[in-house]
Structures are given as C-alpha cells and as structure tokens.
Amino acid sequence: MLNLLYYTSTGTELPSLERAVAELRAAGLRLKLAVFTRERATLERKKLEELASQAAALVLVPHGGEESLPGLEGLVSRFKGEIIHVQPVSGSPADLELVDKYARPKDEAFGERVRYLTLGGPENLKNFLLKLLSELGEDVPVAGTPVPSPTEGIWHPEGGFFPDLETYLDFLERRFGKIPRPLVGIWFYQGYFVNGDLEPVKDLVQEIEGLSAGALPVFHRRFVSKGEGLPPTEVVEKFFKKEGLSVIQALINLQPFSHRLLWPETERIYPDLDVPVLQGIVSFASRKNWKESPAGLSPLEVSVSVAQPEFDGTLITYPVAGRDQEEVSEILGIPIPRLKTIPEGVRRLARLAVNWARLKLVPNREKRVAIVFHHYPPREDRMGCAFGLDSFESVARLVRRLAEEDYAVEKVYESGEEIAQEFRTRQIYDRRYLSETDLLTRALVRWPVERFRPYFERLPEEAKKKLREAWGDFPGKFLVSEGQFLFFGIRNGNLLLTLQPPRGKIEKLSAGDIHRPDLPPPYHYLAFYTWLREEFGAQAVIHVGKHGTLEWLPGKAVGLSEGCFPELAIADLPNLYPYIVNDPGEGTQGQTPKLRRYSRSHDPTADAGRAFRRARRTRGSTGGIPLACGGKPGPGRGNPATDSC
To answer: For this UniProt entry, which residues form the secretion signal (predicted)?
Structure first.
C-alpha cells in the first residue's frame, strides 16, 4: 500500500523533501511515496486520482486556494485513507479555507506537522514524514522536535550564513582588504536559503564582485507569526542600514508582489533607504519558456513581478532565473523544480545595478547626463513632442536645478523658448530642407562609422540580420556622410541636450512605421546610443516627452533578452523617463519595463514636482524639478485646452 501521496502546487520545498526521503531510505526505512506537482497533476489527472484511492495519507501543499491544486476535489473524493494534511503555506484566506474544508483530523498532531513544514528544510521535512508515518501506525524512530531555521540573515556563496551586518562586513573586509564600494544589496526569499535553491543569488553575487563592487545578499521570510521573525521594516533597518543610514548604494529585489500592498506600514521602506531599487525577475516558468516567448512573461508574472512591485517604486529589469524541471529525481521519481540562472539576465542586472550604485558615489560636479527630447515624427515642428507637458520649459527648469545642485552647467536658460530656438537653428533630423553641407555644418558630432563597427559586430547574429534586411549593409545610408554618423546635440558643461534620433525615414514614420513591431531602427539609431555611452560618457540619461521610439522597437513586451532592440540601444545606462500614463492606450505601452524607467501619471491637481523629487530619492538620480504643464501649442508643448498635466 502507498504510504503517502504528496501534492504540492509550487514544488519549491521539493529539494528539501528529496534530501529528507534519501536520508530515511539510507537509514533502512521503507517509505512508499508518490509526489505530484501542479504541472504533473494537470497532465496525469487519472493517475493522481488512482493513487489517491491507494494512499494511507494525503499531503496537500496549496499556494492560493483550490485553484492552485488542479483536480483537488476529485482526488479527495477518491481518498479512503485516515489523514489529510493541508499546509496553509501563504496564510491566505483561500489556503485557510482548504484547511477547514479538507484537513482531518485537526488535532494536536496536525499543528505539530504544520510547524515542521512551516519551518522547512531537510531536517524538518524528515521529521514531518516520521511524525506522519508514526500516526499511521508504522514502526519508525520518534520524530525530533522542529528545528528553527533562520527567518532572516545574510548568505554569501563563499562565507555561508551570517546572523548580522557587523559579522558580514568583517568578512568582506577580510576577503577584499576593505569593504567594497559601491555595495549592492540583494533581497531574496528565505525559502531559497532553507531549500538550498540559491543558484541565481550565488551568480549575482559573483557577477557583482567581478565588477569591482560588493554584494550584500539578505534573505527573510515574508509571512511570520508574531515573535518568530522580523517584519520587512526591521529587516531593512538591521541588515541594509547602520546607525540609521544605508550601507548600500543600490538594492536588487528578487521578491515578487508589493511590500506596501501586503503591509501598508512598509510604504516608507524604499524612500527612507534612499537608493535605487531594481526588480530582478524570478520566472515561475522554465528558462526555455521565457527565451521562446515573444511576450517574455506570463500574465500572472506580469501582475506579481512587474505591476505590483511598481507600486513600491522599483525599476523593473530582467529575468535572472527560471524554474526548470529538466532533471528527474531518482528519489522522488519526478522532475524537481529548481531555480536555474539566466546568465545574460544576471550579467545585465549586475552591470545596471552597479552603474546605478556608482551614481551615488560620483560627485555631482563629475556626473555626465544626457537629456533626450522625443522627436516623432522627425519634423522640426515635432521637436520635444509631449502630451500634457511643456518639455522645453521643464528641461529649462531642470537645468537650473542641476546648476543649483553643483552639476557642471555652463549655461542656464531663462525659459524653454531659448532651448527650442537653439534646437530649431541646429537640428539635422528633419532633412527636407537641409543640404548635405547644412548637415555637416550643423552636426555636433561626426562619429566615424568604423568606431561603431566593433560594437555592431558584437550584436547577436539575428539582430544583425534584421538590420541588413531593413537598412542594407553596414553602416547603411541614413544620416551617414563621408564615412561618419551625424548626431545632433547641444553641449552644456557636463550635460548634453539632444533629440532622440529618427527610427527611420520621415516618410515611413509618417505612414505609421514607428509602431511596427518588426521594424528595427537604422544603424544610426544604435550608433547614437552607443556613442552616448562610450564616447560622451553619459552616466545617466533622461528621456523627456511622450512618447519616444525606444519602447516601440522590436523585442519582448517585458523581461527583455539581450537580443531585444531596446536593450541593444540603451544597454546598462541608468534611465529616467517621466511619463504621462493617463492615456489608456499608449500609457499601457509606456508602462512596460522596456526602458526600466520611472513613470508617473500627471494629475492636474497634484504637484508634479513630486514626481522628479521622488525619482531622485528612490533612484539615486539626477535631481528633482517641477514639471511645466500646458503652455502654447507648438514644438514640445502640450495643449492646455485638451491635455491634462
């Protein structure tokens, strides 16, 4: 007879269960166990019900109520055994309802079993099985008392577990000779630590350290009973701060959902930490699913790993791991879901996080910032185009504020009109009335195409193929003259005021090609962003207006890969993009994390300056300004009669 049928929704605890079963069998215990995950149950419903009719005990581990365990009602109806254990993993009302509906008997032994699984880890899983077998009348050793696992702490792949910040900082000092700066925090689930499922955390730490920075990887258990562990606010104070001040310069959060939606009292966690917070995505699906999906993430993942963390003000970045089920466990007889690193995601997130962190350490006087006005279609009357925003006036105020904050600014502007007129006399992207001589005379930068060639050659082969199909052989003919790419811009100290380059020829863009999901940008477009990073040396970029073209380039909707064109353009450059999102159509696209931007819906009753100020607090960014709304219709201005600011 089958001893146990173990049915789990997510399977995150299965690595610990595997080790527990292996230890019991090595000790000579005969344990007949069948294990099902949600995926297996969906494919083998009849087998699940057949085994339920043979089992002496049924263990159910839901994660979100009855829907998280497909076929539950049918298998319970076939079950003829004595014990049904329902583990309320998330503590949600839906899981607790399952306990009330199905668990039997609800006695003292049930509470002890819940405790074993709540604490988790191989030793507690082993004692859970011994306890259950003992209740079934099996002659087994007495189960040990539950072994508490750390509910929070620090874990490093070389140093192991650290109970407090001071001990860990001492370890870093011994390891590197000094505490590395910048120091990047990583915040992840305690379950990864308890189950030994730490591959993406290990790889992130190693990648960050390879960039001459330090990592501070902290775990905690989100749902704890009073007195059992620290709430999120105290975790931050204990591990990411010292004497009330942040010890990190950036934070990578690997936890889905929103802190503030779960616990309203955590609303000030990130603003008070005062560092940029980057959301690393741990996919519920396999790496193969993510790689092959044009959407990138499933609707559920978009909800919990993108939309909800945005309520906390995080910058949505890349998938760093998938949950693969490739290896069949000889012990459990099924593929065990394990976190497997997505190497390109880890590399890109580490670089981006370190770049954001370094911004906190560079004196304002030395920071180089590019301010990119949107320009679509690329006509002179559409320079600085925006909806509900006077972009030129806003940037004039931004420049004044940056000068006050000691950025290297040579000229402040009395009004946005000064910038607009200077752009009109020097722009090169509306070529309808400009000769070749005009282009060469006006271009701020003439960058030899051969300087871009090494970067082009490193692009993925598929991207190079698409560029050749759309624009001919490298470097194409668009905005190329005498073997040079031509770029527009105005240098102002360490600032560069510029226009986003055209996505294509003006006649094509006017016909709607800007929104074509299969049209790659010209070579010139990618060369511009490369020049911005590599030659101008921009450490941050601010995109101004609504909307630009970067977010419409070919690639996944969310969770970009290294072959997506928005990523090929902006790469690891910290980016701020204040955006009006009360346009329900394009606002949805505007909220996609293709640009890892700060976005906010501008409310005419709100002080729009809070948007930039909050961005400054939570992103370690370039400073705060009030947004200028309305103004006269024309280049760079919204229409106050029809637009809300």
So the answer is: none
Region 20-38 average pLDDT: 94
Whole-model pTM: value is: 0.89
Q: How far apart are CA 248 and CA 216, in angstroms?
A: 8
DSSP class of residue 394 equals: H
Distance in angstroms (rounded) separating the CA atoms of residues 545 and 385: 6
Q: What is the pLDDT of residue 503?
A: 87
Q: Is 533 helix (H, G, I), strand (E, B) or coil?
A: helix
Side by side, the strands of the sheet bearing 315-324 are 160-162, 152-156, 214-220, 183-189, 250-253, 277-282, 315-324, 338-341
Q: Do residues 409 and 403 touch, judged by C-beta distance below 8 A?
A: yes
**CA-CA distances (angstroms) from residue 440 to 249, 379, 434, 436, 447?**
42, 18, 10, 6, 11
CA dist 341 and 286 (Å) reads: 10
Of 208, 141, 247, 189, nearest to 13 by C-alpha is 189
63: left (phi over 0), alpha (psi -120 to 50) or beta: beta
All residues at 6 or more sequence positions from 148 whose CB lies less than 8 Å from its CB, including other chains: 119
- Domains (ranges, CATH) in the chain? 2-135 (3.40.50), 152-358 (3.40.50.261), 364-619 (no CATH)
How far is 640 from 642, CA to CA, in rounded Å?
Answer: 6
Average of per-residue pLDDT values in the chain: 88
Q: In terms of Cα–Cα distance, which of 252, 306, 250, 307 is closest to 273?
A: 250
User: Could you tell me which residues come within 8 angstroms of residue 248 by beta carbon, excluding any fewer than 6 positions away?
Assistant: 182, 183, 184, 185, 216, 240, 273, 275, 357
Task: Name which of 522, 544, 528, 530 is nearest 383 in CA terms.
Answer: 544
Q: In whole angstroms, what is the distance from residue 400 CA to residue 623 CA?
A: 11
Residues ≥6 apart with Cβ < 8 Å to 405:
364, 623
Which residues are 490's β-sheet partners? 497
Instruction: Give the separation between CA 48 and CA 497, rounded to whole angstroms.
Output: 64
Would you say 443 and 486 are in contact if contact means Cβ atoms under 8 Å apart? yes
Instruction: Please tell me whether residue 619 adopts helix, strand or coil conformation.
Output: helix
For tokens 């000779």, the residue is 177
Beta bridge partners of 85: 59
> Distance (Å, rounded) from C-alpha 596 to C-alpha 542?
12
348: helix, strand or coil: helix
Q: Exposed, middle or buried by CB within 10 Å (0-12, 13-18, 19+), for 462?
A: exposed
Alpha helix stretches (DSSP H) within 177-279: 190-194, 199-210, 232-235, 259-262, 269-273
Using CA atoms, how far apart are residues 525 and 519, in angstroms rounded to an integer? 12
94-135 pLDDT per residue, tens: 899 999 999 999 999 999 999 999 999 999 999 999 999 999
In angstroms, the CA 533 to CA 538 distance is 5
| Residue range 584-633, pLDDT digits in tens | 445 445 444 455 444 443 333 233 333 333 333 333 333 333 344 343 33
